[in-house]
Amino acid sequence: MAVEIVYDTHATTTDNEADIATGWLPGRLSELGRRQARELGERRPGDGFAAVFTSDLQRAVQTAQIAFPGGRPPIHQDIRLRECNYGDHNGSPVCLVAAQRAQHIDNPFPGGQSYRQVVTATDAFLHDLATEWNGSRILVIAHSANRWALEHLLSRLRMVPVQAAVLEPPLAPARSVLAGQADHPAVPDAADQPTSRPTGMPLC
Fold it and tell me: CA-CA distance, 69 to 31, in Å (whole number)?
């Protein structure tokens, strides 16, 4: 057996709308984001999920709590699902962080971490998920770096290099669902795409 994962990024934040790369700062949902979070709950009222796992950063927790206000399915926070820590550049303009992305696949941002470290943390999360939730369907709400990590980790034989996942993300709606299993390729859930952010809206 395996764990089935359905992935969604957190809803739109005020930083997203201002083109700010939030990184490890908490962030908060904008009015659009709160509406998106409610729509997520309406679109997936339980949906057979055994649990929801989120980053412990405020914007991801808010998304889950607004989507599932009754605590069903149960919501679990996990620090390993955090966005990449941009260190000195947390809260900087998205264009500045994006321009440096290629330099920090293996080398950490000053005062922060590398994308490879995000992959390592996400891999540890997947290992525990497979051990503790075998046979379950799980919703994960996190950030763009985690999605890229999952693209790499869940692709068959890890044929999607970290560099390709981070620097050449798939052309898809900004909040597309990633569904997959720990021992199978990740594939888009084309039948149930969430509401997209406005074109060009950054993920962070």
Answer: 17
Please count the other Cβ atoms lying within 10 Å of the Cβ belonging to residue 44: 20
Name the packing angle between helices 58-67 and 31-43 (round to 10°). 50
Give the separation between CA 151 and CA 86, rounded to whole angstroms. Answer: 20
- C-alpha closest to that of 114 among 143, 87, 150, 81: 87
Residue pLDDT, tens place only, 95-141: 999 999 999 999 999 999 999 999 999 999 999 999 999 999 999 99
Show the CA angle centred on residue 189, arms to residues 154 and 184, nearest 5°: 25
Q: Rounded to the nearest 5°, which phi and psi values hold at 125?
A: -60, -45
